[in-house]
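User: Predict the full complex structure for these chains.
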Amino acid sequence: GQQVMQIPQYQHVQEGEDFTTYCNSSTTLSNIQWYKQRPGGHPVFLIQLVKSGEVKKQKRLTFQFGEAKKNSSLHITATQTTDVGTYFCAGPVSGGSNYKLTFGKGTLLTVNP
Amino acid sequence: IAGITQAPTSQILAAGRRMTLRCTQDMRHNAMYWYRQDLGLGLRLIHYSNTAGTTGKGEVPDGYSVSRANTDDFPLTLASAVPSQTSVYFCASSSGTGQFFGPGTRLTVL
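Assistant: Here is the predicted structure of the two-chain assembly.
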Protein backbone atom coordinates (compact mmCIF):
# COMPACT_ATOMS: atom_id res chain seq x y z
CA GLY A 1 0.00 0.00 0.00
CA GLN A 2 0.87 3.66 -0.08
CA GLN A 3 3.76 4.64 2.15
CA VAL A 4 4.88 8.04 3.34
CA MET A 5 8.38 8.07 4.76
CA GLN A 6 10.13 10.78 6.69
CA ILE A 7 13.77 11.33 7.49
CA PRO A 8 15.41 11.82 9.83
CA GLN A 9 13.47 10.22 12.70
CA TYR A 10 15.21 12.48 15.19
CA GLN A 11 17.19 15.68 14.96
CA HIS A 12 18.88 17.54 17.78
CA VAL A 13 20.16 21.04 17.06
CA GLN A 14 21.62 23.98 18.90
CA GLU A 15 19.36 26.99 19.04
CA GLY A 16 20.05 29.14 16.00
CA GLU A 17 20.96 26.25 13.72
CA ASP A 18 18.84 25.34 10.73
CA PHE A 19 16.74 22.18 10.48
CA THR A 20 15.29 20.24 7.56
CA THR A 21 12.99 17.24 7.45
CA TYR A 22 12.21 15.30 4.29
CA CYS A 23 9.10 13.45 3.24
CA ASN A 24 8.85 10.87 0.45
CA SER A 25 5.78 9.14 -0.87
CA SER A 26 5.65 5.86 -2.76
CA THR A 27 2.92 7.36 -4.96
CA THR A 28 2.20 10.72 -6.56
CA LEU A 29 0.24 12.96 -4.23
CA SER A 30 -2.50 15.42 -5.06
CA ASN A 31 -1.31 17.48 -2.11
CA ILE A 32 1.01 17.28 0.88
CA GLN A 33 0.20 18.55 4.34
CA TRP A 34 2.45 19.32 7.28
CA TYR A 35 1.59 19.13 10.96
CA LYS A 36 3.42 19.94 14.18
CA GLN A 37 2.90 18.18 17.48
CA ARG A 38 4.40 19.65 20.63
CA PRO A 39 5.43 17.18 23.35
CA GLY A 40 2.28 16.05 25.15
CA GLY A 41 0.09 17.89 22.67
CA HIS A 42 -1.97 17.12 19.62
CA PRO A 43 -1.05 17.51 15.93
CA VAL A 44 -1.65 20.99 14.58
CA PHE A 45 -2.14 21.64 10.88
CA LEU A 46 0.54 23.93 9.48
CA ILE A 47 0.09 24.08 5.72
CA GLN A 48 -1.01 22.34 2.55
CA LEU A 49 0.92 22.37 -0.73
CA VAL A 50 -0.87 21.48 -3.94
CA LYS A 51 1.15 22.53 -6.98
CA SER A 52 4.21 20.82 -8.41
CA GLY A 53 7.33 22.70 -7.28
CA GLU A 54 5.35 24.87 -4.90
CA VAL A 55 7.22 26.76 -2.17
CA LYS A 56 5.48 28.42 0.75
CA LYS A 57 6.88 30.31 3.71
CA GLN A 58 5.59 30.88 7.21
CA LYS A 59 8.02 33.16 8.99
CA ARG A 60 11.11 30.97 9.54
CA LEU A 61 9.49 27.85 8.05
CA THR A 62 9.84 27.04 4.34
CA PHE A 63 7.83 24.25 2.78
CA GLN A 64 8.52 22.75 -0.63
CA PHE A 65 6.60 20.29 -2.80
CA GLY A 66 8.69 18.37 -5.32
CA GLU A 67 8.28 18.64 -9.06
CA ALA A 68 7.08 15.04 -9.29
CA LYS A 69 4.70 15.59 -6.35
CA LYS A 70 6.20 12.62 -4.51
CA ASN A 71 8.41 14.43 -2.06
CA SER A 72 8.39 17.44 0.19
CA SER A 73 10.57 19.19 2.71
CA LEU A 74 10.21 21.50 5.68
CA HIS A 75 13.11 23.79 6.48
CA ILE A 76 13.35 25.86 9.65
CA THR A 77 15.84 28.71 9.65
CA ALA A 78 17.54 29.65 12.92
CA THR A 79 15.67 27.28 15.19
CA GLN A 80 14.23 28.44 18.50
CA THR A 81 13.22 26.44 21.54
CA THR A 82 9.59 27.02 20.55
CA ASP A 83 10.22 24.88 17.46
CA VAL A 84 10.58 21.74 19.57
CA GLY A 85 8.16 18.99 18.60
CA THR A 86 7.42 16.31 16.06
CA TYR A 87 6.80 17.36 12.47
CA PHE A 88 4.59 15.11 10.37
CA CYS A 89 3.90 15.14 6.68
CA ALA A 90 0.73 13.57 5.32
CA GLY A 91 -0.72 12.87 1.91
CA PRO A 92 -4.16 11.76 0.67
CA VAL A 93 -4.64 8.00 0.53
CA SER A 94 -4.22 6.64 -3.01
CA GLY A 95 -7.55 5.94 -4.62
CA GLY A 96 -9.43 7.32 -1.67
CA SER A 97 -11.14 10.60 -1.04
CA ASN A 98 -8.93 13.56 -0.41
CA TYR A 99 -10.22 13.54 3.13
CA LYS A 100 -8.23 10.44 4.19
CA LEU A 101 -4.56 10.92 4.91
CA THR A 102 -1.52 8.70 5.27
CA PHE A 103 0.87 10.19 7.82
CA GLY A 104 4.61 9.80 7.91
CA LYS A 105 6.06 8.66 11.23
CA GLY A 106 7.39 12.15 11.88
CA THR A 107 10.67 13.83 12.72
CA LEU A 108 11.25 14.72 16.37
CA LEU A 109 13.13 18.00 16.69
CA THR A 110 14.83 18.93 19.92
CA VAL A 111 16.59 22.27 20.39
CA ASN A 112 19.35 22.92 22.88
CA PRO A 113 19.13 26.50 24.19
CA ILE B 1 -17.27 24.65 22.63
CA ALA B 2 -14.50 26.00 20.43
CA GLY B 3 -13.15 23.54 17.90
CA ILE B 4 -13.02 19.88 18.74
CA THR B 5 -13.27 18.26 22.16
CA GLN B 6 -12.64 14.75 23.41
CA ALA B 7 -13.65 12.96 26.59
CA PRO B 8 -12.37 11.55 28.79
CA THR B 9 -8.87 13.06 28.93
CA SER B 10 -7.51 9.82 30.24
CA GLN B 11 -8.85 6.46 31.37
CA ILE B 12 -7.58 3.27 32.91
CA LEU B 13 -9.69 0.32 31.88
CA ALA B 14 -9.77 -3.35 32.79
CA ALA B 15 -9.39 -5.76 29.90
CA GLY B 16 -12.72 -7.02 28.62
CA ARG B 17 -14.61 -3.86 29.53
CA ARG B 18 -16.54 -1.81 27.02
CA MET B 19 -15.50 1.81 26.55
CA THR B 20 -16.72 4.72 24.44
CA LEU B 21 -14.46 7.64 23.64
CA ARG B 22 -16.39 10.79 22.84
CA CYS B 23 -15.58 13.40 20.22
CA THR B 24 -17.53 16.55 19.43
CA GLN B 25 -16.79 19.36 16.99
CA ASP B 26 -18.59 22.65 16.47
CA MET B 27 -16.98 23.64 13.17
CA ARG B 28 -19.65 21.92 11.03
CA HIS B 29 -16.94 19.88 9.32
CA ASN B 30 -18.28 17.04 7.20
CA ALA B 31 -15.37 14.65 7.71
CA MET B 32 -14.25 13.18 11.02
CA TYR B 33 -11.57 10.68 11.97
CA TRP B 34 -10.21 8.55 14.76
CA TYR B 35 -6.48 7.88 15.04
CA ARG B 36 -4.35 6.06 17.50
CA GLN B 37 -0.82 7.18 18.20
CA ASP B 38 1.79 4.76 19.47
CA LEU B 39 5.49 5.36 19.97
CA GLY B 40 7.40 4.54 16.82
CA LEU B 41 4.25 3.89 14.80
CA GLY B 42 3.02 7.41 14.25
CA LEU B 43 -0.64 8.20 13.64
CA ARG B 44 -2.75 5.34 12.36
CA LEU B 45 -6.30 5.78 11.11
CA ILE B 46 -8.87 3.60 12.86
CA HIS B 47 -12.17 4.73 11.32
CA TYR B 48 -13.40 7.75 9.46
CA SER B 49 -16.62 9.38 8.34
CA ASN B 50 -16.89 11.56 5.25
CA THR B 51 -20.32 12.85 6.24
CA ALA B 52 -23.06 12.23 8.79
CA GLY B 53 -24.61 8.81 8.32
CA THR B 54 -21.55 7.21 6.69
CA THR B 55 -18.45 5.57 8.14
CA GLY B 56 -15.47 3.70 6.79
CA LYS B 57 -12.61 1.54 8.00
CA GLY B 58 -9.11 2.87 8.26
CA GLU B 59 -5.79 1.12 8.62
CA VAL B 60 -6.40 -0.51 12.03
CA PRO B 61 -10.19 -0.94 12.55
CA ASP B 62 -10.29 -4.30 14.33
CA GLY B 63 -11.74 -4.13 17.83
CA TYR B 64 -13.24 -0.67 17.26
CA SER B 65 -16.57 0.63 16.02
CA VAL B 66 -17.90 4.10 15.27
CA SER B 67 -21.18 5.81 14.51
CA ARG B 68 -22.01 9.17 12.97
CA ALA B 69 -25.59 10.02 13.81
CA ASN B 70 -25.07 13.75 13.26
CA THR B 71 -22.43 16.19 12.01
CA ASP B 72 -21.01 17.12 15.40
CA ASP B 73 -20.44 13.80 17.19
CA PHE B 74 -18.25 10.83 16.32
CA PRO B 75 -17.91 8.36 19.21
CA LEU B 76 -15.42 5.49 19.14
CA THR B 77 -16.35 2.28 20.96
CA LEU B 78 -14.09 -0.50 22.13
CA ALA B 79 -16.47 -3.43 22.59
CA SER B 80 -14.11 -5.53 24.70
CA ALA B 81 -10.85 -3.77 25.46
CA VAL B 82 -7.50 -5.57 25.20
CA PRO B 83 -4.07 -4.40 26.44
CA SER B 84 -2.88 -3.81 22.85
CA GLN B 85 -5.44 -1.01 22.64
CA THR B 86 -3.43 0.97 25.15
CA SER B 87 -2.66 4.14 23.23
CA VAL B 88 -3.36 7.82 22.80
CA TYR B 89 -6.47 8.35 20.72
CA PHE B 90 -7.02 11.47 18.66
CA CYS B 91 -10.21 12.58 17.00
CA ALA B 92 -9.95 14.97 14.07
CA SER B 93 -12.25 16.78 11.67
CA SER B 94 -11.85 18.38 8.27
CA SER B 95 -13.71 20.47 5.75
CA GLY B 96 -11.22 19.58 3.02
CA THR B 97 -8.00 21.49 3.72
CA GLY B 98 -6.13 20.18 6.72
CA GLN B 99 -7.35 18.13 9.63
CA PHE B 100 -8.03 19.65 13.03
CA PHE B 101 -7.26 17.47 16.00
CA GLY B 102 -8.77 17.22 19.44
CA PRO B 103 -6.61 17.16 22.58
CA GLY B 104 -6.59 13.36 22.73
CA THR B 105 -7.58 10.60 25.16
CA ARG B 106 -4.88 8.58 26.87
CA LEU B 107 -6.23 5.06 27.35
CA THR B 108 -4.57 2.33 29.38
CA VAL B 109 -5.98 -1.18 29.25
CA LEU B 110 -4.80 -3.46 32.03
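The CA atoms of residues 18 and 79 of chain B lie 5 Å apart.
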